[in-house]
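Sorry to interrupt, but I need a hand with the structure work. Go ahead and set the record down below:
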Amino acid sequence: MVWKLPLHESGHPENELTAESDGAVIRRTVLPGGVRVVSEQLPGQRSASIGAWVNVGSRDEQSGHFGSTHFLEHLLFKGTKRRSAMDIAEAFDAVGGEANAVTGKENTCYYARVLDTDLPMAVDVISDMITSATIDPAELETERGVILEELAMNDDDPGDVVHEQFSAAVLKGHDLGRPIGGTPDTINAVPREAVWEHYQEHYQPETLVFTAAGNIDHDVLCADISQALKVGGWDLTPGVAPRARRDTTPIVGLGQESVEMTIHRSVEQANVIIGSTGITATDDRRFQLSVLTAILGGGMSSRMFQEIRERRGLAYSTYCFGSSHVGTGTFGLYAGCTPARIDEVTELMVGELEKMADSGITPAELERTIGQLSGSLVLGLEDSGSRMNRLGRAELVTGELYSVDESLKRIREVTAQEVQVLAQELASRPRSIVRVGPFGS
């Protein structure tokens, strides 16, 4: 079953979804103001995961606001009109819960996992953070230092550097190519006024989505969210439609040229990624891509792992990945190896992709990978946090929610020919390569 998630105003009958999937009850409601609530009730659980999603990411930042999205992720934990930073921290520590946030290129999520009886508290605190952050100037300056330390920590990790620079190379010229957390220059430059403007513009009812999974009563959850947002001063006007999802039209002109980049780091092991643009987040071939990446470099039995690590002993870690966004994506082959072997390892990785494009995959590989992906999907959904994230992605990105059975069906329907055709397309695209290691000075 595939459920459509339309964006009508609150009260519209098509916005009231009730469905059952593998024993769970999924419900969706659009509240006044355009706030969306999607929940999945899981029988027998004593916990609940909840996420408040704001449909803004680093790609949405304008000049002068660069780094504001990640800045806000930190600052919303630093105090509201009703709570200090310590109050927010103590609220979750006192019940043995956990709360955190994550900034992406296309959205920001504030989430928590608590006992089911503590869900009203989690809703109240997260809603307070969303609606009533003070963005205190002194706290902002303190957090500026924290973020600079975070960026420095990431810059010390060659694995982080190679992935970030690969994205920048392939998506060169587009906002998606910029680093999510900003750069030291942009973080030092962004003023409090710009962060406040970014907050006021994007943290609005029509951009907000709550998703929850666990032992949840949907009607109670909706009532708690409505009350908390009103306490926060938001005007939940009836009849307002949620903000439209991003335009899914593929972005043209990206990855048309090969970029070669070598970054010096005084480390023992070199890191390399070679690849190209991938497929978009809404591309119907995303199940074929999952099979392709799993066979090529997704586990111990994958081709890259077997050839590069097991047979030749040239790397400890090597894998293939696809990262999808609305309108574009990236596809890459990664390895970490001795600097003197980096060209040899790169040639082997590309060789495995080209073999797949030329000769396809075997029936045994396809059967094994379908089992691998099916098991990973089902086991991953044992966690309420994974289910909460699945709901958020469906609501914000695709506008479709697949049942578990439908997802398993789509995986089983992937054919060897489809995988080969996709491999041919990816192998034919201009390749960019990024190396990080003790090269030059």
